[in-house]
Amino acid sequence: MSQAHAHSQDHGHHDQESLKQFGFWLFMITDVILFATLFATFVVLRGNTASGPIGAELIEMNGIIISTFILLTSSFTSGLALLSMNKGDKKGLILWLAISALLGLSFIYLEVNEFIHLVHEGANIGTSAYWSAFFTLVGTHGLHVSLGIVWMTAIIIQLAKRGITPVTKRKVNIISLYWHFLDAVWIFVFSIVYLMEVM
Amino acid sequence: MAAQHHSHEESGHTHGSLKSYILGFVLSIVLTIIPLVAVMNDMFNKSTTIVIILVTAVLQFLVQLIFFMHIREEDKPRYNLVSLVFAVLLLLTIVIGSIWIMTYNQVAM
Amino acid sequence: MLETIKEFASEFFVTGDPLILGAQVSIALAMVAIVFVLTYFKKWRWLWTDWLTTVDHKKIGIMYIICAILMLFRGGVDALLMRVQLAAPELEFLHADHYNAIFTTHGVIMILFMAMPLMFGLFNIIVPLQLGARDVAFPFLNSFSFWMFFVGAMLFNLSFVIGGSPDAGWLAYPPLSERTGSPGVGQDFYIWGIQLSGVGSLASGINFVVTILKMRAPGMKLMKMPMFSWSVLASSVTIMFAFPILTVTLFLLFLDRYLGAHFFTVDAGGNPMMYLNLIWMWGHPEVYIVVLPAFGIFSEVVATFSKKKIFGYKSMVFALMSISFFSFFTWAHHFFTMGSGANVNAFFAVTTMIIAIPTGVKVFNWLFTMYRGKLSFPTPMMWAIAFIPCFVVGGMTGVMLSVAPADFQFHNSYFLIAHFHQVLIGGVVFGYFAGLYYWWPKMFGFKLHEGLGKWAFWFWNIGFYVCFMPQYALGLMGMTRRFNEYNFDMGWQPLNVVSTIGAFLMGIAFLFQVWQIAHSIRFLKKDTSGDNWGQGRTLEWSIPSPAPFYNFARTPKVVAQDDWWEKQQRRERGEADPAEVIAADTAPLEPIHMPKNSGIPIIMSGFWFVAGFGFVWDWKWMIVLGLAGVIVTMLARSFNFNDDYYVPVEEIERIEAAAARGAN
Lengths: 199, 109, 664
Prior knowledge:
Shape of chain C: globular
Radius of gyration of chain C: 25 Å
Distance between the termini of chain B: 67 Å
CATH topology of the largest domain in chain C: Cytochrome C Oxidase, Chain A
Number of helices of chain B: 3
Oligomer: heterotrimer
Number of domains of chain B: 2
CATH architecture of the largest domain in chain C: Up-down Bundle
Structural class of chain B: mainly alpha
Number of strands of chain C: 2
Largest interface: A-B, 55 and 55 residues
Number of helices of chain C: 21
Strand order of the largest sheet of chain C: 1-2
């Protein structure tokens, strides 16, 4: 595979990688709109508890606080993974990615537990418009995180096999962007769904 | 064209030092604790609390953007920034627009 | 045992209607025929390698267009059925349930499964060629977009013969579309068909934004880019920002129906009006998504057949982008009567009026382009000229509707129906037809028969006005939409009969077009030269027709707006090209980097189809199977590092030489 340093002639691997990163950024922008719609729905319907249980009485902030710090930390550790990658440190990269994925897994575990608790207390997705919006907004974020964990795991495997190449670099850049984005969304979930409910 | 290889770290997202990540992490924690404390200790009235919550959330979002997503280091033309600005504008339209439109359409519950 | 099967079959298949039975039989026969033909001519391998797994934008574009034409047929038949029913009271041709299902499917098909794929087809075929690029930014994703559209359309169309069509209108307002109002599976087919196809649309939006921003040939600054590509950029940006809203809204309706959520129900705190708010936040940008590319096509066609640069290029670009921007701020005009209050209505009335202005600018610019141009009137140009009065009138009735207090009279009357058909047909359909006729020779290497094209043109135009002008009057007289029958006493019958005649004239026009295509293929006059109209302005005319699979053997160097035209002008004047152009045109051939074909898009989409079908019937095993398949195929894609190859120079030389011979 000599040659194709045809610069102006050829969109080589080089450009392909930055094209893909830009494309992914745009995808995240569309995800911003997706979450915006879910937030709008939640805000409009949050008062509609239909004489049923309200969030303030059932939400347990302790678990949420822990989840928040876990997710925040995993965003930080994914940054550490990137730093390792830029230094060419494959072991460090895989280690920090794995830690980020594990922290994400803990986040999901806590969230599932929270949902189970809520359902036991009589609040499920069909209880009222408020709870429909609650479970959908929080759940969609959780689904995004879960998919991210699967994805991260796949990349770890690919890194173990192939090491740090322009292609795997691009993949790591993209997943860590995704991971930061999910933390950013969580900031608003935490603030608007939880803090504003219990204040 | 040599210009094609202008930055070997094409993506522009590969900068950032340990210091900036740690700073970003610490700022995020602080910006989480502030509204938490305000809410859990019932320190202010409703409107003030809402403002504190929203302001710290937005600031933390900016921290994510600047320290973790390296939005300032993009090469020109800054398509990433422009598309983000549009997205935020539309986000505000969707949320505020829905609230405004639905205000009179709320079914009394 | 037999009883259970019989019971299941009577629920599963739609029974009891001769028309539907006919359709079921035809579909089965057609499927058998296709399988037979493919087997007899041993074409399965060819089908798989050349079409089903292609990532070539030109082929994907053709597949989109074929689907769109088939859907135009079904949507058109729906229209004719409705118009027959409405021609007289007490006809008992279509009962209310049927009629509801037909106007529902007519709307969904025409907008989402006819206009959108026709649009994406044209995007696909032309944009990379206009930009001097070898494909779109993400060819694999491009294929995925097509197949998601295809399975979405399949799911939706299947409801006609399996389970029952949706019948709650093309936008499925709750509470009618909730489980309480629509207990059957039709509404679920609706949700999944549109949801899956919508994912494809969103991905295409992203694909074309990246392609246009990042893959233009060297020297093609944005302000030198052809107008059609600008319109594709404007439309694609709009797609990116609008479609996520649709995804969420349909998802919420799905949750209501599937999990008993209460977003839009009338009980437990649900609010159906929130659905209208959200769906129109998507719905309004959607109509601009489809019309902006039509505007782009008109700019190309008018400039080409006036032999003149488009007048006011900068203002045209500005107009496109502002229409795209403002389209996100007008949505409430679709529900002025919902009760949001005077302030809300006033705001949206004003924004709606504002958005008419940039379009007006464009119309003037097209006219100024033609003024003192060297005009000729082949079919594409005729469509462009017919569009102008038609769309202007349609737009003006839009401004009438935007006056909120007046809208309380117009809303949901035939006045509204006439308005939106006028802008959709006069704007979008006329525009895409113009594009199809204009770029047909570029796609296939032969032109469509002019004479038959003119017959189709006149039948479409006359048919359109005969069909829809009476509907404005009917609306003003008080005729409300979505009824299958109107009492003779209302006095509306004469105009309805006229309208029905117009509809059939358009049906005849479609037949002329089918004849035209068949005739042109049979008696084709090959023209593979490249500049098929002899007066092309933009880069797509600089390569052979149809284009070689890699498009450009050498990446061109662009120096001007309408670069190909300028080059031809230099030739005529005996002027030499600038040095950098000569360098680019004579540079030694180098191996071309191309993406490999892939079976993953069609397979992954197939799994989405399975999952969607499972969700519709709530067969849990099928849902799990489908979703598992999706995840596995996604991982297969992630683990595949071998998805490209290089075209050797010898092959490029061979293809270029053959094209040169063919052109002589």
